[in-house]
Amino acid sequence: MRKILPGICLFWIVYLPLCAQSIEEIRWTGSYSNTKLPTIFEAIEAQYPVRFFYRQEWLEDIVFTGTFSQEPLPQLMQKLLQGTELTYKPYQGPYIILLHKNPNTLNHGRGREGEDNLIVIGDSLSNQGQTSATVSGYIRDGATGQGVTGATIFALPLEKGISTNINGYFSLSLPIGNHRLQVNSLGFEEESRNIKVISDGSLSVDLYEETARLEEITITERAEDYNVSSAQMSATRMDIQKVKKMPAFLGEVDLINSIELLPGVSVAGEGSAGFNVRGGDVGQNLILLDGISIFNPSHLFGFFSAFNADLLSDATLYKGGIPARYGGRLASVLDVSVKEGNLRQIKGSGGIGLVASRLSLEVPLVEEKSALIIGGRASYSDWILNRVDDMDLRQSEASFYDANLKWTYRLNEAHKIGLTGYISNDDFTYTRNTSYGYQNKGAAFNWDFLISQDWLSSLTLSHSRFSYEVGDLQDSTRASLLQAGFDISEGRWNVTRFWGERHQVDAGLSLSYYSFEPGEQQPYGDFSLLTPETLAEEQAWEMAVYLSDEFTITPALSLNIGLRYNQYRALGPADVTIYQNGNPSGSGRVVDTVSYASGETIAQYQGLEPRLALKYNLDARSSIKLSYNRMRQNMHLISNATSITPTDIWKLSNKYVQPQIGDQYAIGYFRNAIGNVIESSLEVYYKDIHQLVEYKDGAEILMNDQLETELLTGIGRAYGAELYVAKNLGRLTGWLSYTYSRSLRKVDGQYPDERVNQGSWYPSNFDKPHDFTVVGNYQFTRRLRMGFNFTYSTGRPVSLPEGTYKVGNQDIAHFSARNQYRVADYHRLDISFSVDGNLKKKKKWDSSWTFAIYNLYGRNNPYSIFFRNNAGGSLTAYQLAILGRPFPSVTYNFKF
User: Fold this and answer.
1) What predicted TM-score, i.e. pTM, was given to this entire model?
2) Regarding the domain delimited by 235-895, which CATH topology (the fold level of the hierarchy) does it fall under?
3) Gap between the Cα atoms of 134 and 537, Å rounded
4) How far is Cα 817 from Cα 824, in angstroms, rounded to an integer?
5) Potential cystine with 894: which of 216, 338, 424, 847 (Cβ 3.0-4.6 Å)?
């Protein structure tokens, strides 16, 4: 670590100042003869991080003849446009927008308000001597009718503004009188409105896609300097369009695998479902899809995401500084939104790949009011198992499917309701002796409505069910079918209050009801002599209330402070075993059993969860941020594996298993350069975890009606530093990140069998100190681009035998202390090439081809190490690699 941090600091001192090049400093040299302007613009873009936007038809007949020698860009633009009807306007640093001098040219017959028309907001009868009023409304996509997230509304000459929320809604307080509103969103044409504010009222504006030479800029759904100006830290909003350009395993676009390339996020290895965030295990991540809780986010051993990217609009990962509206998990929150259907015309998209195919359809049901989007994927992936090195996997079968549905209805400008449905299913048969199946399905009802001009409310009701089954056919007389699952019903209500220009207050309430079926084991087949067994169900209630305020203290200093109160009750009916000294995991023995009636409280836990985030701007391009959050988790993933498996057990807190509590502290330095083209950050964090659930060595966790006797309680700590640098504009875009992190645990009980590693600290299963990632996308031409990503990480910890001893005639392995060794380091390079369809403006069918190679140089990355006894009693080590060769793929994508 001491060697690494100086290198990071040197990078900060040397590299970032070099990036801070303004447009005025860009100088161009070139000689041209009757050269079209787009050719000149393309050459400049290839060398500098600057982008030009214009209407293609404006430049069709314009050519330039002349020579430039170190010509500053502003003077160059004046010479190129001299004698034309065009002018230009710099926009937020790296964007050069060409405008027509005749304003009427900008109104394309869509019937929009002209710039000289005056729109009156409110009426004189409603004005009771007020000096200011609230203008609210929606910014919508003119093509689909859906709200535009993160659009900016700027009032002139006051130079004050605001951004729209996730539904495209805004609320802006303005003095009574005349104003000019400018509405911008990247990828859309700028719109202006002259308004006269008399009293509170509403205004809605439609934005239309910008006719630009390069199609890739429909990027941000937030202010471009959000990473610097916002108090939120340790959060990443994943741009779905960028995700689609990244190399994917066998051509399937994958949100989860893209998240795993972010700093602070890791996986145990290939073939691992779930992800680890800042030292947390896979069960400590809250994953929401339109409010539906998702418990296994992956298909096919983690190689594919359980989310169809064609149907997603937004995804945000919170690693720290978690807002007060979220709770229930210690490590992270991944909030994913399904996009709404097109309100104005039928649209469709899909893809055909080597492993799976997908199709989605958007249908307007009531024009401008209601739409439906539906889509699904299905696999035909058995052939891939024939290419892996493990012989048992070659004799196995695997398949998956998932489907989404979302219906939305706008009752009026103030009310919108929606229904979302989701199902995900996986089946896997291992050597035809063992079968696994797991399924996640759920539904959610969402209602967004305006209480008043300054009050916005959101209500979500959801239900989610996760279930799995395991069939064991190895011994026909002991063949069994194990089934387990659980249901979660949840309600969340959030209200947002805009208090002037300085406060945004959020408050809310959430209720959750849990019903767990720990396991039912039945005989499987005609010859099985197994005795049926069913474990008792578990029920619980969880309630939380919260309040937070995003407070702008000064233009440079802002504070987000919140408090969440959580209460949890484990409920009957249940028979609870009583142990001597109240200790189930030590030397205590069973002394009694207490029965609880239905609805009776077995155990109750409660506590406060404070949240704090502070931001201070050093200048217009950089800021320092601090954050703290406490989280409580009442659900526990009990597993002796390194990632999610179908035999994992989710258990509720009860009399003997207490809630896990985590405290995380973080500090970060954020800096942007070249007009926000370059984003960079350095974050350092420390996390304490209390009442951590661990398992005993050799624990039996499957179908155990006294599972608490196999569990131990410990503490954990995690700390690290994360460096992130991203380039968001130009032919080459992408990011690089480096993470140094440690994840340690300690279990030191009263008795020897209550200790792990003799009570000393030991690495967790997902402790991987070094992680380096490079992700890039290069646009060769308007139709051809290349994507690549390289990742390197330290090998994960394992426990290995250090010798053998005999018991009778049997050799027994003597294992090391837990996780004292590591598998070899992991590294992999993936590439992809995409060829888009023709560039005709009016076409009913658009298509593209993506060619990809996963694990380009065939790295044999080890997943685990296992041992076999030799004839002489010695042990031989073997290394298991899931994929040890390159995997090429081709995918045909289409839209209509």
Assistant:
1) 0.81
2) Maltoporin; Chain A (2.40.170)
3) 53
4) 19
5) 847
CA 536 – CA 575 distance, rounded (Å): 8
Longest Cα–Cα distance of the chain, Å, equals 99
* The pair of three-digit structure tokens given for residue 707, joined into one six-digit string: 């599972």
Query: What's 21-104's CATH class?
Result: alpha beta
Question: What stretches of 116-274 show up as alpha helix (H) in DSSP?
Answer: 226-229, 240-243, 255-259
Give the separation between CA 547 and CA 563, rounded to whole angstroms.
6
Q: Which amino acid is at 147?
A: G
Q: Is 126 helix (H, G, I), strand (E, B) or coil?
A: helix
Task: Give residues with Cβ within 8 angstroms of 205, minimum separation 6.
Answer: 137, 138, 139, 140, 181, 183, 191, 193
> Alpha carbon of 541 to those of 205, 614, 637, 662, 663: distances in Å?
44, 33, 18, 21, 23
Cβ proximity of 446 and 480 under 8 Å: no
Tokens 């005999």, residue?
806
Cα 425 to Cα 298, 376, 377, 379, 436, distances in angstroms: 10, 12, 11, 11, 11
Q: How far apart are CA 78 and CA 86, in angstroms?
A: 10
- Tokens 């350009």 belong to 245
CATH architecture of 107-207: Sandwich (2.60)
Residues 362, 345: Cα–Cα separation, whole Å: 8
pLDDT of 743-786, one tens digit each?
A: 999 999 887 878 888 889 999 988 999 999 999 988 888 788 89
Q: What is the pLDDT of residues 630-639, one digit of tens each?
A: 999 999 988 7
| CA 116 and chain centroid, separation | 43
Mean of pLDDT values over 237-248: 76
Sheet holding 86-91, edge to edge: 51-53, 95-100, 86-91
**Phi and psi for 239 in degrees, rounded to 5?**
-80, 115
Q: Pick from 768, 882, 867: which is nearest to 815 by CA?
A: 867
Give me the phi and psi of 19, to 5 degrees please.
Answer: -75, -20
Instruction: Tell me which residue has tokens 């929009």.
Output: 112
The DSSP 8-state label assigned to residue 324 in this structure reads T
Residue-range domain boundaries for the chain:
21-104, 107-207, 235-895
